[in-house]
């Protein structure tokens, strides 16, 4: 008789010693098999044994078997308690297999000298990649550019808020404008790159260039100087993603109870004051969410840059991701590229945690 | 053949009169020579016959056409392989599927070969952009899963240099008649440490494309297209501020792409630098062979960089040129009527008259790359005041290689080489050169313009365009691609540093060149200096 958690366990498990023993057998048997196969393959990879393995699939298969046995054994050994564990265990194993273990492999690669063209293959090189990163002006330049790109979100937010207010107002053809303003978000950034970055801004025939000439700019150039190129990239990215923030803010605006605004109106708050004292504070939770999600999108900015400027002129438009793309793909520099990505990940995690903390502090008085 | 060139011919389809001329000529030749020349006539006849499939002007070839050509060109295979000899053997072939060419054609060509030999081929098709990562990852992770590979010569360092390829048997050399290859594709290209690995199926080089209407009596560019880079720069300065004779828009001289292109953009600085840096006394012009010390910051390369910086500073390029990659320079600028001249691969020639966006078809001319009035002797450390031409044989074209997966199984090895040799055969190669295949001419026998004219091509254009290719291929001082591991890593990082230099982030051309050299030294150290030295020397045949 199970004398465990009688309050929550509704069935009376009568687990026989044989069943529990079988459960323990398959569990430890599969763990042993996994360790044995992994050890043998590691020994072969190290040149100590020759067992005829041609790839690491046997280890993978034994890992999958161990995972399945682990789940099964929970039920065999622990009955209903085990079944309850099964609600979580597959997800844990999934995260472990597809996030944690690859991350560990990523860390191993990050501290390696692994140029795919090197005949020596992957070599552990300690902190050399960190030192190289420290002295790599291209990487720090890309990080600096990311700060500019991130700051541009504030301007995007302002425009998005304005558009959301507009679409929330009783204007003509409101539904049409809602759809029209959303269109850029539906376009792939690669399409935006070619449509705007390569065609519309083409200096001879591009319609934007023609318009610029008509407005008195004799020799329009949208990517000729670092500042101009960076600004053009920011504009293209903003054009694509402002609708995303706008739609989130619009949803927030529509969720504000009308009574609050009407009460403010009765109290004499109109126009700017009604917005600043009532609407904006009520919109802060949505705003913070929109800003953080937009920041996450922005930190991944690469496609437009890769397609339009390749990071140029002279690295002026490089994002960290576009730089890592060149380092990793064009130069097959897997070790260094992975380290840069891991460091960037750490930066992102720290920045996002900090921002969430700040947002929490800002929002507390209002909520 | 590049598809665009075929389209030129398609527009000028053979007329009945020309057909009758050909028939009359053929009849006359037969009457004069009688039966005595039957074997040679049979060979000529085969070449003429395959060129009729499907016929220039009869639309794009289909899978049925490729199979028919493959069937007709099986003669050399039958001489070396018995029917059904490879029954039960399966091979895996990895290659490209760009523009529905490459592997797509190979399937058709090899279907009759499969039927005859009994072997079966499995296919791995890759887009161009996926090719390098797929190959490098397969090599790095020890998961080479293909027996035959379509591959560019620059990757020989990554494959042959690591012992991943199978050396070509002597019977294959005879079957493909490798002596017919143009000079620059002869060994050491395709060889490594004295062993031959490659069946060439393509040729590549940069040539000069220029606007004839910029030059001539009273033309804005001078009497004729300059032959030397020094004069090319002077011409670019001179046309600045004038009006393009074709478009009526501002005129520009020579167009350099100033933005990177995944490493491929560096070839365009090489076009300038090879004239200054490739001394006839040495095949090396990128690295010192004994030390792998970069030559990219010697005075010759610095001069090439300075030439570009001078034009940039003088405003002799179109606005936004700093953001123009080779694709934009060739297709959005030159073909659309901007600029007097560019250097590019054969695509510009083949698109000039056929692309809907090209406006220069009637005024385009071709030549080998410009030379220089002086050349730097790196060994002596001094300039020599002698004229120097050094066409840039950029990329060296595609080849078919067999991997060492088949080396332990003689029957499979023979099957793999037989399949590869079928694709690299002399007659089938003429068809590939003359019809859309993705490949340029690469054999001396491909430059028999009579065969092209007989197939319906415009003689004058073919002579001009193909002539510039032929003269580049066979140039005694042509600049050869260094086939070392990671060559595109060197090119890619050079592009980044050049972009910084062109954007004014370095103080001078010398500083820019020094930054490239420093980055190259790092790559060499990372890949392994000693092995790079050995492989570099091997690739240059030293």
Write the layout of secondary structure elements.
The complex is a heterodimer of chains A (367) and B (542).
Chain A: H1 17-45, H2 57-78, H3 80-85, H4 89-110, E1 112-113, E2 123-124, H5 128-134, H6 137-168, H7 174-186, H8 189-200, H9 207-214, H10 226-255, H11 258-266, H12 271-299, H13 303-308, H14 320-330, H15 334-363
Antiparallel strand pairs in A: 1-2
Chain B: H1 3-11, H2 16-33, H3 38-50, H4 63-72, H5 75-80, E1 90-96, H6 103-117, E2 120-126, H7 128-140, E3 148-152, H8 156-159, H9 170-176, E4 191-192, E5 195-196, E6 198-200, E7 207-211, H10 229-239, H11 266-277, H12 299-313, H13 326-334, E8 341-344, H14 347-352, E9 364-367, E10 375-377, E11 382-384, E12 392-393, E13 398-402, H15 410-423, H16 426-434, H17 449-454, H18 459-473, E14 479-480, H19 487-502, H20 509-527, H21 529-540
Helix pairs in contact in B: 4-6, 6-15, 9-15, 11-12, 12-20, 19-20
User: CATH architecture of the largest domain in chain A, please?
Assistant: Orthogonal Bundle
User: What do we call the CATH topology of the largest domain in chain A?
Assistant: MetI-like fold
Q: Enumerate the spans of chain B where pLDDT stays under 50 for 5 or more consecutive residues.
A: 12-39
Shape of chain B: globular
Subunit arrangement of the protein: heterodimer
**Spatial gap, N to C terminus of chain B:** 33 Å
Distance between the termini of chain A: 50 Å
Count the domains of chain B.
2
Chain-averaged pLDDT of chain B? 88
Quick one: overall form of chain A? flat
Describe the sheet with the most strands of chain B. Answer: 5 strands, mixed
Give the chain pair forming the largest contact, with residue counts: A-B, 40 and 49 residues
User: What is the count of DSSP helices of chain B, taking H or I runs of 4+ residues?
Assistant: 21
Strand order of the largest sheet of chain B: 2-1-3-13-6
Calculate Rg of chain B over CA atoms.
Answer: 24 Å
By secondary-structure content and strand pairing, the structural class of chain B works out as alpha/beta
The ordered H/E elements of chain A are HHHHEEHHHHHHHHHHH
What about the largest sheet of chain A? 2 strands, antiparallel
